[in-house]
Amino acid sequence: MALKLQCCFFCICLVIFLSLGFWASQIEARVLAEMSMVDRHEQWMAQYGRVYKDAAEKEKRFLIFKNNVERIELFNRPGGNNYTLSINLFADLSDEEFKATRTGYRSLTGQRPSLNTEFRYNNVTDVPTSMDWREKGAVTPIKDQGSCGCCWAFTAVAAMEGITQLKTGNLISLSEQELVDCDNTNKGCNGGNIDKAFQFIVQNRGLTTESNYPYEEVDGTCSEEKAAEHAAMITGYEDVPSSNEQELLTAVANQPVSVAIDGSGHPFKYYSSGIFTGECGTNLDHAVTLIGYGVNEKGIKYWLVKNSWGTSWGENGYMRIQRDVAAKEGLCGLAMEPSYPTA
Ligand SMILES: *[C@@H]1O[C@H](CO)[C@@H](O)[C@H](O)[C@H]1NC(C)=O
Ligand SMILES: *[C@@H]1O[C@H](CO)[C@@H](O)[C@H](O)[C@H]1NC(C)=O
After folding, report:
1. Which of 74, 148, 294, 321 could form a disulfide linkage to 189, CB 3.0–4.6 angstroms apart?
2. What is the pLDDT of residue 111?
3. DSSP state, residue 337
4. What is the pLDDT of residues 27-38, one digit of tens each?
5. Domain Peptidase C1A papain C-terminal spans what residues (predicted)?
6. Burial 213-225, CB ≥16 within 10 A → b, else e
C-alpha cells in the first residue's frame, strides 16, 4: 500500500515536472522567436537604412514588421504557389501608409477624358505569341517613386519613353518631376490620372529629360524654363476599350501601355517572383506600365509589368501578372482603364 502510494506520488511528480518542462520550453521557444524577430527587424532596418525617431516609433514599427513577416511566411509555405513574397522595403509600413505614399492613381470614375475615341489597334489580329519591349530597347531602367504618390507620372513617362523610342529610335529617360511640379490638372505626390497627364504633355508640347529635371520625391515649384526644353513629344493618346484583354493584347503588342491597377493588397505589395495570380480587388489605386506578355512553362499566360518601386521589389522591379483571367476587368482590374500615347 505504502509502496503504491509512493509510486503514485512519484508518477504525479513526474507528470508535473514534465509538463512544467514542456511549458517552460514553449515559453522559451516563444521568447526566442520574439527575440529573433527583434534581430530580424534590426537586420532589416540596416538593410534598408531605416532610422526611427524614438523608442516608441521603433516599437510601433516592430509590431507592423512582425505582423507583415508572419503573413509573408505563412503565404510562402511550400505547396505550389504560383509566386513568392518577400520581406521587402515595405515591411514596416501599415496598409494605409503604403497606399497613401507608394501608389497614387486617381480614376475619373467612368469619364475617361479622351481627346479622340480612336483605338488604332482595333483591327489588328496578327500579334506575336510573346513580346518584351525591353529586348527592343524601348524601356528605360526601373525607377523609384519613393514616398510620393505619383505612380501616374511614372507610367505616363514610361509609355511615352516607349513610343518615342519606337518612333525615333532613341531611348531617352524623361522627367516625372516635370509632371509632378507642372501638371496642375493632377495632384503631384497626392495622386493623379494617366490620361490627364498625357493631355498635359500634349498641351505642354513635350517633356524634358530626367537629367535636366531630376526626380525629387516631393511636390515642387514648376520650373517653366526646364519645362520648355522639350526632349520628346506626343501628339495625343488613346484609350484601349475597357475590360477587354484581347484588345489590350493588340495594343501591348504594338507599344508599352499604361494601366491602372489595384496595387495595394498584401500579396501585391510583397510580390517577389513568379506569376502573380492574386488575391487582389479592382479598386484602381496604382498605375504601372505593361511592357510585354508571354506564357510560362506551365502554360500560364502573363503580362510583363514595369513598376516604379525600385529594383528591390519583385523581379528586379518588374512583375509577371496573370493574363486572360475569367474576370473581364483583368487581374487586379488592369484591363479597366488602359491607355497609350501616340506620336
Ligand atoms: C496557379 O495558377 C493556376 C492558373 O491560374 C491556378 O489554376 C492555380 O490554382 C494556381 N495555384 C495556386 C496555388 O494558387
Ligand atoms: C476597322 O475596320 C472597320 C471595318 O473595316 C473600319 O471601318 C475601321 O475604320 C477600322 N478601324 C481602324 C482603327 O482601322
Report:
1. 148
2. 63
3. S
4. 666 666 666 999
5. 127-342
6. bebebeeeebbee
Over 60: is that where the pLDDT of 331 sits? yes
299 contact partners, CB below 8 Å, separation of at least 6? none
**Which residue, among 291, 6, 324, has the nearest Cα to 136 in the 3D structure?**
291
Q: Are 183 and 196 in contact (CB under 8 A)?
A: yes
Residue 71 C-beta-side C-alpha neighbours within 13 Å: 18
- Integer Cα distance of 69 and 55 in angstroms: 20
Using CA positions, which residue lies closest to atom 5 of ligand 2? 123
Evaluate: CB of 81 within 6 angstroms of ligand 1. Answer: yes
| Ligand lying closest to the C-alpha of residue 119 | 2
Identify the nearest ligand to the CA of 76 by its number: 1
pLDDT tens for each residue of 137-187 = 999 999 999 999 999 999 999 999 999 999 999 999 999 999 999 999 999
Alpha carbons 329 and 243: distance in angstroms, whole number: 4
Catalytic residue among 150, 151, 189, 332: 151
Span 118-141, pLDDT tens digits: 899 988 889 999 999 999 999 999
Strand partners, 190: 149
Place of cell 516607349: 162
